[in-house]
Amino acid sequence: MLDQSFSWAVLIVLGVVTGVLAALLGIGGGLLMVPALTVLGVPLVEATATSLVAVFLSAVSGSWQNLQMGVLDWRTALGLALFGIVTAQAGAWLGDRLPDAALSIAFAGFLVLTLYLMVLKQQLQQKSMALSPPARRTDQLWAIAAIGTLAGGLAGLFGVGGGMVMVPLQMLFLGEPIKSAVRTSLGAIVAIAASGLVQHSLNQNVLWIPGLCLGGGGILGAQLGSRLLPRLSDRTVNRLFRLFLLGMTLYMLMRGLLKLF
């Protein structure tokens, strides 16, 4: 549990930062929140569960803004979500049963995958004019099913929205432009995060007050990020975020190894 003397204001600020990044990059914010909560002494499975509160609220906020602006492809988002909500339950179930050390090392591995996917996303963005046209409808359905299934499992297991996986895969297999993929993935995260949160709640892993503090900040941050997305290039943000992810990868790996040995 968090130290009761710890300022809620810090959690709110952390939520704002992750909310902005969620809307700009199409992520759920858990990649930042989960390691940060473990630094504050929260067991990893509780950090995973608690981050989903903020992930859900941030995704709702950003997606509502995108819907109001008329830029959300809700049909594709719904398709991704329908497959993701099932595997989010499975991921949350598995996360509750893995030892903390194993979950830490697995999270570090996921961060390495995320770093690779960020590079892939940037390459796809640079070559967006040369991307293949969207797949046929039948092929699209299979791609949506596979992407949603993978994202849901990762969301439940690691407390992340799954957008870092969904965005480059949507660009690669669905032929979506970068900004459309970001918005669609954020919409799917709403249902996926809710599904994982239900299972973690049943397992009594959720710290509701810290989660709501993070989520409150995340709502504000997602609103800011959604308004910035049409105007800003994410190149600088991507570079800074990759450096942060590298640091978090090393931290989670060392945390797991220390607990293991």
Give the topology, please.
Layout: H1 8-25, H2 30-39, H3 44-68, H4 74-95, H5 100-126, H6 137-158, H7 163-174, H8 178-202, H9 208-228, H10 235-260
Helix pairs in contact: 1-3, 1-9, 2-3, 3-6, 3-8, 3-9, 4-6, 4-8, 5-7, 5-10, 6-7, 6-8, 7-8
Query: How many helical elements?
Result: 10
Order of helices and strands: HHHHHHHHHH
The oligomeric state of the chains shown is: single chain
Domain module count: 1
Q: Unreliable segments (pLDDT under 50, ≥5 consecutive)?
A: none
Ends distance: 23 Å
Roughly how many Å is the radius of gyration? 17 Å
SS-based structural class?
mainly alpha
Helix content: over 70%
What does the main sheet amount to?
none
Please count the beta strands (DSSP E, at least 2 residues each). Answer: 0
Strand content: under 5%
Mean pLDDT: 81
Shape: globular
Can you tell me about this structure?
With 261 residues, this protein is mostly helical. The chain has one domain (8-260). 80% of the residues lie in helices and 0% in strands. It has helices spanning 8-25, 30-39, 44-68, 74-95, 100-126, 137-158, 163-174, 178-202, 208-228, 235-260. Helix 4 (74-95) runs parallel beside helix 8 and helix 5 (100-126) runs parallel beside helix 7. The radius of gyration is 17 Å and the shape is globular. It starts with 7 loop residues before the first helix and ends with a helix.
In short:
This protein has 261 residues and is mainly alpha-helical.
